[in-house]
Design a protein that fits this description.
Alpha-Beta Plaits, alpha+beta, 7 helices
Length: 237
């Protein structure tokens, strides 16, 4: 890839801006100062700007602890989106959310630059579990557990059997694998409850890192990445 394109992809500026950075001799490739912004670079090349080594990885996998009131979208003219919580380089590399969480749902949201991985994790055929902790306005009962486990007709689709585990009178964890629009909230409405708080605590093999504050993110660890690819039936170098 051309040097100016790589630097632009790493959110260092527009192509014109990074060409000027290179022209001024501020860029080093493998320790050698360069001034040709059109030179070819390899993924293994070490890139520096003003002596600082750049994180030039093109593959990224991120866990975000999504806060309330933020849209799961690439961009929105009026409201803050989850992309606003990441670094500019993530958008430049097309590190996008895997699925979505409703505006007022919090918790684990995965981002990846690997479109095939995202597609497989979201495929209904793979039955990837999503686990939520829900707080309801009215007390939960064993009868609710039975209704969830039997599946339910929500009008536009029939929800597959879901696992409901009651933690206390108003709190439960629910495990689904479809992830339809407002599905969990609608399932609770079907048994006469309103969800007042909904938090995703697991997605496939990933569990929300409780050390992450709301709105904070971190790169996935190697073992987490391997587990995701294995869950998706893919190999990862």
């Amino acid at each position: 890839m051309r040097l100016d394109r790589r630097l632009s992809e790493l959110a260092l500026g527009t192509r014109k801006e990074v060409q000027e950075i290179v022209r001024r001799g501020r860029v080093q490739v493998n320790g050698v100062s360069v001034r040709d912004s059109g030179m070819h670079t390899e993924d293994t090349d070490v890139l520096c700007v003003d002596g600082k080594v750049l994180d030039a990885r093109r593959e990224r996998h991120i866990m975000l602890n999504k806060p309330e009131g933020v849209l799961t979208a690439a961009r929105d003219k009026k409201q803050r989106t989850v992309m606003d919580l990441l670094e500019p380089v993530h958008a430049s590399l097309s590190c996008m959310p895997v699925g979505r969480l409703d505006r007022d749902t919090t918790g684990l949201l995965l981002f990846t630059t690997d479109g095939e991985l995202s597609h497989r994790l979201l495929s209904p055929a793979r039955h990837v579990d999503k686990v939520y902790r829900a707080v309801t306005d009215l007390p939960l009962s064993p009868a609710d557990v039975e209704v969830f486990s039997a599946g339910m007709d929500l009008g536009d689709f029939v929800a597959a059997p879901a696992g409901l585990v009651i933690e206390d009178t108003h709190t439960a964890t629910v495990t689904v694998h479809e992830g339809k629009f407002h599905q969990v909230r609608r399932m609770f409405e079907k048994v006469g409850k309103t969800v007042v708080k909904l938090d995703r605590i697991a997605f496939g093999p990933l569990t929300l890192d409780m050390a992450l504050a709301r709105g904070a993110w971190r790169e996935l660890e190697d073992e987490e990445i391997r587990a995701l690819y294995q869950h998706a039936g893919m190999e990862h170098e």
